[in-house]
Amino acid sequence: EVVLTQSPATLSLSPGERATLSCRASQSVSSYLAWYQQKPGQAPSLLIYDTSTRATGIPARFSGSGSGTDFTLTISSLKPEDFAVYYCQQRGNWPPTFGQGTKLEIK
Amino acid sequence: EVQLVESGGGLIQPGGSLRLSCAASGFTVSSNYMSWVRQGPGKGLDWVSIIYSDATTYYADSVKGRFTISRDNSKNTVYLQLTSLRVEDTALYYCARGGGTVMPLDYWGQGTLVTVSS
């Protein structure tokens, strides 16, 4: 199965700063990479799918890029509500797999 | 409005069984792919099972032969039957729309907690 490795494990930033989260796949997943946000005590929610398509209602400060094995989630200017755990997930190969998550915390 | 509500979790002894339910509203489960994803305490997300619109089912290797996914179209509900439960099955179980290699998981329920302990 495809192993997704997210880095860093924890990212400490301040509101207004730019966040860059990485997800690396053990083999190509084409463009079938999604990002989910999970806040404490809540279910995950879809942010971006197919590498760069924002889900309904997701603000433009969230963007995704990459292809093949290397993907990036960028948050252009952090707002207080963006501090959460972010997971990447691939559906380019069976079975679908998730990364271990990146915790974005307030510095 | 799309909504998914899970129920059926609880405390169960190793080797026991449990049936989880996921009641959907705002869309028809039989026309969609429906997945179960679990999250162990303080851990990440693990895909568990999926049922396709044509009723084809798939399972993660860790649960194959022990868990069964199904749906009741008249109740617009998806189920996950858990048997031969192990301590390592302890997790918050989420129902989500979508999945497999076809589509992302675009709506999630709030989850139901399964605790396997003696």
Please describe what this structure looks like.
The complex is a heterodimer of chains A (107) and B (118). Chain A has 107 residues and is mainly beta. Helix content of chain A is 0%, strand content 50%. In chain A, the strands form 2 sheets. In chain A, strands 2, 4, 5, 6, 9, 10 and 11 form a 7-stranded mixed beta sheet that branches. In chain A, strands 1-3-8-7 form a 4-stranded antiparallel beta sheet, with no helix packed on it. In chain A, strand 5 and strand 6 form a beta hairpin. Chain B is built from no helices and 11 strands. The A-B interface holds A 32, 34, 36, 42-46, 49-50, 55, 87, 89, 91-101 and B 37, 44-47, 58, 60-61, 94, 99-111.
What would you say about this model in short?
With 107 residues, chain A is mostly beta strands.
Write a concise keyword list for the protein shown above.
heterodimer; A: 107 residues; mainly beta; 7-stranded mixed beta sheet; 4-stranded antiparallel beta sheet; 11 strands; B: 118 residues; 54% strand
